[in-house]
Structure formats: C-alpha cells, structure tokens
Amino acid sequence: MANVPLLQADWPAPAHVHAVVTTRAGGVSTAPWDSLNLGTHVDDNPADVAQNRARLQQALCSVATCMEPQWLNQVHGIRVLEASADTVLHASGALPAADAVTTTVAGLPCVVMTADCLPVFFCDRAGTRVAVAHAGWRGLCDGVLEATVQTFADPAQVMAWMGPAIGPSAFEVGEEVREAFVAKQADAARAFVPSPNAGRWLADIYLLARLRLSAVGVMAVSGGGRCTFTEGETFFSYRRDGRTGRMASVIWLSGA
After folding, report:
1. Which sign does the torsion angle of CA 247, 173, 226, 32 carry?
2. Whether residue 157 has pLDDT greater than 60
3. What is the pLDDT of residue 1?
4. Three-class SS string for the chain?
5. Residue 23 lies in a domain
6. Can you say whether residue 240 is alpha, beta or left, with left for phi > 0 and alpha for psi between -120 and 50 degrees?
7. Within its chain, how far is the Cα of 2 from the centroid?
8. CB atoms near residue 85 (< 10 Å)
9. Strands 158-162 vs 220-223: parallel, antiparallel or unpaired
10. Is the dihedral of CA 104, 18, 48, 51 positive or negative?
C-alpha cells in the first residue's frame, strides 16, 4: 500500500466521524509540486496527479471507506454542495462549482483542497451530518462558514475543527481586506495587527474563523495551530512558493 501520511483531526467528534488532512508527502509529483499534489489545476503532470489521487483513495480505503471522494471546482465562493452518490463524478466529468461540501451519506468522503486557505471540518454531536469548507479570505469574509453551518439543524450541536492554513505571522494583507472583514463584523479588527510593511496588516485567519462561527452559535471550535507557510517540509503554500501543489482535507461518516 502507498505510504500516504494523513493528519488526523484532533477534536471530540463521534467515533464514526473521520477527518484527515494530507501533507505534501507520499506522492509521485516532481518539483515544484513534490510530491502528493492532488490539484488538477496547477500545471502538474495529469498522470502524476491521477496517481496521487489513487494513492489517497487507497489510503482512505485502508482506514474506513472505499467510495470515490466528492471533489469540487473551488471558486472562492460560498456555495455548499449536498453530496450524494449522484453528485460524485469521475475525473472525466465536470466537477460542481462550490467551496464547501456536506453529506449524510455513510462512506462518502467530502473533500476540499488548500495550500494556505483554511479548511474547516464540521459535524454534529450525533454524527448524522459532516461537512468541510474551503475558506480563503474572500470566502471567509463573504460567509462560506455560515453557509455551511446552515446545512445543520442546530448550530449549537455543531462542532468544528480548523485544519492547516497560513499562520498569523505570515498572512500579510492590504487595508482593503481588513476593511472588508470589519465592515461585516466590527470585532474582526482584533484579528489584524500592523505589518512591518507600511500600509499592510498581518491577519489571523484562525481568529477570523472563530469569530464568524461564534456569531452563528458554533462554540465548539478547535484546531488552528499549524502554519502552511512556515512548515515547508510538511505543507504546500501558495504564498510561499507560487507554483505548488494542493493538500486535501477529507471528512466522512463510517459505513459501507
């Protein structure tokens, strides 16, 4: 079996909820996509990406599920796809445009890809629904996390785990980004500190996500301790490298 390291989400989810994040290790892609690039849109050799995805599928199969994952065409929006056997398309099909995916179907892996943007996993305390969202700053500001929470019956019963993203010491943004967040939520101002570069800010994407989730009643939020930008041996980072690969954040419910 291919050796594909999987980071396990460290959260108090029910035992039949599984959430993992890939690293850059365990694949066949060459530099600058080395080695487990799972993105088909970053100019990597398509045959290498296909082999990397097959390796991920094999790794997931060894853990709990052998169903084909639900991949997305991510567009930095807020649409949430309700995944089912009917929505899962093969590589030759047109992937649905969305930035979050949710399901109640046992065994169906839901996937988002990132390389600095924030992946956020969700489940309810009963483990009847799972979801994962891709939150770049635009999607986060526009409400992709809130839209994902709305797919659950009761936000108070939802828990979330934040996967690896660009850390607060590396995420430099302009004044327009700070203004956009503060216009939506005044308390967001405390997630920005002045950068050494004049007119720029260092943004804490983890804090921004916590504030948005708290505002809609999701209080059980964990994770947020990794930095894709500084942990170059482990993670891809678009901000750091430009041409680079993508990690996958995958969540599913146990079942046949």
Report:
1. positive
2. yes
3. 42
4. CCCCCEEECCCCCCCCEEEEEECCCCCCCCCCCCCCCCCCCCCCCHHHHHHHHHHHHHHHHHHCCCCCCECCECCCCCCEEECCCCCCCCCCCCCCECCEEEECCCCCCEEEEECCCEEEEEEECCCCCEEEEEECHHHHHHCHHHHHHCCCCCHHHEEEEECCECCCCCCEEEHHHHHHHHHHCHHHHHHEEECCCCCEEEECHHHHHHHHHHHCCCCEEEECCCECCCCCCCCCCHHHHCCCCCEEEEEEECCC
5. yes
6. alpha
7. 23
8. 12
9. parallel
10. negative
β-strand 158-162 against 118-124: which pairing, if any? antiparallel
pLDDT band at 6 (very low <50, low <70, confident <90, very high): very high
Poorest-pLDDT segment among 10-14, 109-113, 244-248, 252-256: 252-256
The domain that holds 95 is classified in CATH as 3.60.140.10
Residue 253 lies in a domain: no
- Residue bearing tokens 């796809």: 81
Residue 203 contacts residue 179 (beta carbons within 8 Å): no
* Confidence label for 2 from pLDDT (cuts 50, 70 and 90): low
User: Beta strand 118-124 with 110-114: parallel, antiparallel or unpaired?
Assistant: unpaired
Q: Mean of the pLDDT values across residues 118-122?
A: 98
Residue 256: inside a domain: no
Per the structure, the complete domain to which residue 136 belongs is given by 6-247
Structural domain includes residue 254: no
The number of beta carbons lying within 10 Å of the beta carbon of residue 9 is 23
* Chain mean pLDDT for the chain: 94
Share of the chain above pLDDT 90, in %: 90
Q: pLDDT, tens digit, for every residue of 64-112? A: 777 889 999 999 999 999 999 888 865 456 889 999 999 999 999 999 9
